[in-house]
Amino acid sequence: MVRSSGAIVVCLCASLSCAGPEWPEVGDAGGLPGSAQTVTGGGGLITKINGELEGPPGLPGAGLGDFEDMYLIFIKDPVLFRASTLPEDGGFAEFDPALYLFNLDGTGLLANEDVGGGMNESVLLGNSNDGSGAFIPAPGLYYLAISGFGTVPLGGVGLQTMFDITPGVGEISGADGLGGGTNPITDWTGPGQFGLYSIALEGVSSVVPAPASVFGLSGLMLLGRHRKRS
Question: Is this structure's pTM higher than 0.85?
């Protein structure tokens, strides 16, 4: 959740449909596809997502805490796609961040924990560099998630790590962990680090239509996949 700050300039409307090129986290973005926050609008380019991982719950019984945020975005140009917390890109994180990209069905696609060279910031591009061959196949809807060190996505029956990432070398990984592959994300490890963040974006647009229609569209897409397989 983002607290009011003069350093973050955004456009807010009651419907959020006029949110400008910088998207502000509204309330708390969830950590799984079913609770992810949709970056909605008129289809214009989104250059940044500003948010906060608030960490442990403040009061007993207030929940499990806020250690990861997930957003539904529209990747307009997979070749130009870039998601970054690097300051030179306009990104920022008060913690050691990791970025993850998931397909619309929740299966893992790409992940980066650090850019290498001793820097803790994270950058995602449209292609992996770990030999897995993973890449963004086409423009469309994807889930972008951010977490702090100590919190990674899990999938599969045994809740295993979805991405097998070698730390410190700038690896952009495909979903090559034991919990990856055809398994959708179902949980996260944790707790991890937390704080304010800004994810600088390229090749990303707001989602059209509105959120309710988006989830109807995703259901139709999944139904279509099922029919093709049968």
Answer: no
Amino acid at 228: K
Q: Classify residue 166 by its DSSP letter.
A: -
135 by DSSP, 3-state: which? strand
Dist CA 63 CA 57 (whole Å)? 6
Instruction: Give the residue extent of every domain in the chain.
Output: 22-229
Task: Provide mean pLDDT across the span 140-144.
Answer: 98
Which run of H or E residues covers position 199? strand 195-202
Query: Going by C-beta distance under 8 Å and a sequence separation of 6 or more, which residues neighbour residue 54?
Result: 1, 28, 65, 66, 194
pLDDT at 109: 98
Would you state the structure tokens that stand for residue 181, as one six-digit string?
Answer: 């592959």
Residue 48's closest CA among 78, 13, 11, 15? 11
Contact partners, residue 88, CB within 8 Å, separation at least 6:
none
For residues 53 and 71, the answer to whether their CB atoms sit within 8 Å is no
Asked whether the predicted pLDDT for residue 227 surpasses 60, the reply is: no
Distance CA 30, CA 171 (A): 26
Instruction: Classify 110 as helix, strand or coil.
Output: strand
Burial 43-55 (b: 16+ CB within 10 A, else e): eeebebbbbbbbb
Fold of domain 22-229:
Jelly Rolls (2.60.120)
Burial 202-216 (b: 16+ CB within 10 A, else e): bbbbbbeeeeeebee
Q: Report which DSSP code applies to 16.
A: S
